Amino acid sequence: MQDLKALRDDPEAFDRALLRRGASAQSSELLALDSGRRTAIAAAETALAERNAASKAAGAAKGKGDEAEFTRLRDLVNAKKDEIAALEAAARDAEARLKARLETLPNTLLDSVPDGPDETANREARRWGAPRAFDFKPLEHFEIPAARGLDFEAAGRLSGARFTILRGGIARVQRALGQFMLDTHLNEHGLQEIWSPVLVKPETLYGTGQLPKFAEDSFETTTGHWLVPTAEVTLTNLVAGQILEPGVLPLRFCALTQCFRSEAGSAGRDVRGILRQHQFEKVEMVSVTTPEDSLAEQARMTDCAENILKKLELPYRVMELSAGDTGFGAQRTYDLEVWLPGQDMFREISSVSVCGAFQARRMNARFRREVEGRPEFVHTLNGSGLAVGRTLIAVLENGQQADGSVKLPATLSPYLGGATLLTAEGTLG
Fold first, then answer.
1. What is the pLDDT of residues 205-253, one digit of tens each?
2. Residue 99: exposed, middle, or buried by beta-carbon count in 10 A (0-12, 13-18, 19+)?
3. Which residues are tagged catalytic?
């Protein structure tokens, strides 16, 4: 949620921030709504004070036996009661209209974010590893013989398009990847593992910014619950409505969950293979920090995600997203893009975003610096550590051999009973 005080203090800066996002200037309309709301509240408070004074005076007139004055004041009290109700209703209406406008506006970007309309303006920060030189034409993941355990036909019969069944060895490799990521984050990066629901209330999705603006991107059930598009939703909302005591921050969480996305805005994109699915697994990282520590925390979280890729020996690059490509709730985002030789290109495998107080305002999540200190909004961050299915794609494509097998990263061997190969028959060896 945008900061209303910042809007009042510097409406021109507010509009400039929206223009960087490709949105129109809106400060004048928002300030008009805010002014109407504040005027109605002030008028209601004045009318309430007048009603209370008239009520007190009516009691005094009654005590003196002045029936005429008592009747006049009683009628005034009743009139003020109706006036107050009307003014309070007007204030609520203005508040609702202002809130409805503010909750659909994107976060304010950091000054360091590159200007630009889309991904073409993204800026490369660094890269690691060199793409492997193949002595044969590398295949896409779904074409590799070792990946025969990807059963799209059976999944289609059960669930339709953009679902996959994994059989045999490839299912074990996916499970190993998720466990390896979790263990690394817990043992080396100091994150706390969380097991959380994948069905949440609408207000939970509202807290992290998926609702109301992006409702079509998620699945709603007939009970009013929503399936989470990412564990960012549950992990971040662990502090919703809370005032955290001094010394608690930073909080660092991670979870391996199923995620569900309708992919409403991506019709026709990446329909082959498992790159873009309705249901997938992801290890999510979430940090909750003080405002002064949030930028350093983004760098730390990015390092955590990079460490996973390094251990898996997967070449990647880190991209700072441009203004037009940065997500709704983020102040700044770093994308990790892994090299996929079958596609001969880098593809996004993790996004690490700092959100500032944007989500905290929606969730009313605050902290105290001192025991009796004034509560302040926390800063929140989220990042993939990593998307398991996309990591599986990268492992398959980068490790593929001329005979149709896949050489697996050594770091996965302990999770696969010592296996180092996914054979062309789809078994572990």
1. 999 999 999 999 999 999 999 999 999 999 999 999 999 999 999 999 9
2. middle
3. 261, 276, 348, 351, 390
